Amino acid sequence: MKTLPVRILHSFAIGLLSLGLAAPAAHAGGAYTQTAETAAVDKLFAKWDRPGSPGAAIGIIKDGRIIYARGYGMANLEYDIPNTPQTVFRIGSTSKHFTAMAVAILIEQGKLALDDDIRTYLPELPAYEAPVTVRHMLHHTSGLRNYEHLTLLAGIDSPLHPSPYYTDEEAVAMIARQKSLNFTPGERYSYSNSNYFLLAEIIGRASGMRTAEFARKYMFEPLGMSHTHFHDDVDVIVKNRASGYSPTEDGGFRINMTRLGQIGTGSIFTTIEDFFKWDQNFYDNKLGKGRQSLIEMVETPGRLNNGDSAGYGFGLNIERFGGLRLISHGGAFVGFRSYYMRFPDQRFSIVMLANQGPFPLYEVVRDIALIYLEDQFTKPVDTAPSPEDEDAEAEPPAIALTDDRRRAYAGRYYSPELDAYYTLRATDGTLTLQVGRYHTEELAASAADALRWGYGTLEFARNPAGEISGFVLHSEPIRNLRFEKLPLD
Length: 489
Prior knowledge:
Elements: H1 11-18, H2 36-44, E1 56-62, E2 65-72, E3 74-76, E4 81-82, E5 89-90, H3 96-109, H4 134-138, H5 147-153, H6 168-176, H7 193-207, H8 211-220, E6 229-230, E7 245-247, E8 253-255, E9 268-270, H9 272-281, H10 293-298, E10 317-321, E11 324-333, E12 336-343, E13 348-354, H11 361-373, H12 403-409, E14 411-415, E15 420-427, E16 430-435, E17 439-442, E18 444-447, E19 450-453, E20 456-462, E21 468-475, E22 478-485
Antiparallel strand pairs: 1-2, 1-13, 3-4, 5-9, 6-9, 7-8, 10-11, 11-12, 12-13, 14-15, 14-22, 15-16, 16-17, 18-19, 19-20, 20-21, 21-22
Helix pairs in contact: 2-11, 3-7, 3-8, 5-6
């Protein structure tokens, strides 16, 4: 999953705001003072702010108070329940810095260390040529293959399948079967959900508690975040929860939820009002031992082996936007999207939580930042739409295959690392690949003994007799997944 680049009548409300609380808003801006800025923000969400459409909730924070919060569109289309600042959303990968904060608290408690070999806590993982440390995983410099991509390649998961399912144990086992890394730990930054899924496992093993319970006790309760949790029990009832949706071709929507229970990489459920409390803790820490050094730890970007910055702290992107210091992260999973953008020097933050995917996360949050901070930027801000596949290399033209060559490739292949079988079938002038229950696709030749499909390239190997003996699968950034051709039954 690639992270995007950067991107509340009155006297009563004022009394609440002075305490750092937000008054409930029944509609629009509710009890918040309406200004030209809030009208401009509302305009950005006009497309979704209507009956029959899911939408989002927004929180804009300045100098220790919420200056605007509002819900747009519907949290639940079946019961016509609107989104509000009190609606509970799944926030996808914006969860990562919550996971990382739990790691930081354990470091402060002396229960683990940044440079611990992860096999200290996860002995089932193989010993790679160079050790992977907790630090590497926090900064996405471990080289660990992304388990979600691996489950897709193994045919366990698919964008075409409405509700894939695998357990935590199966996900750990998938990672543990990998005999190599994508690169030497610390060599480069490469976003991989395996890092934060395994960090959640380490939190549980190092603390002796369920990771979700550790987070509740040491993070959410101290901050009064009573509507926030790690969703490790998919059957638990969550009051005021939004449903997730995806659009259909006819202009309608379908429910897009999940039965997956993995946490760490995602699965925080929260509200705009709870997120405000989290945001303010970065300025006056109340977690752990209450020291500001805990915040400094999580906001420090990692370093690569060559000394360059990885640009990523503890689950947070550390960068500059319009010349201003910016700390941010986005999230996208099933029918939910989220984005958190904080300008610490301006004490200004934007939190956007949405229950529709896709959603133009970065563009909307960027435009809100422009509305409020444009006169403070010291450098131009790129307002062009986010490019999609702009850097993708053009595929080479397909090479025609003879029937004999198709039949030579046909057969059943097995990968121990994926614990998966690939079946190639040559029929009616075509060569198709079937993976698990979900993928069936026609293959095209791109070079001698190289076939491509929607998820990568198969490079075939031959034995001394010239017969196909197997192939290696490259599916960026994963390379060299080996498959052996099995004998005919």
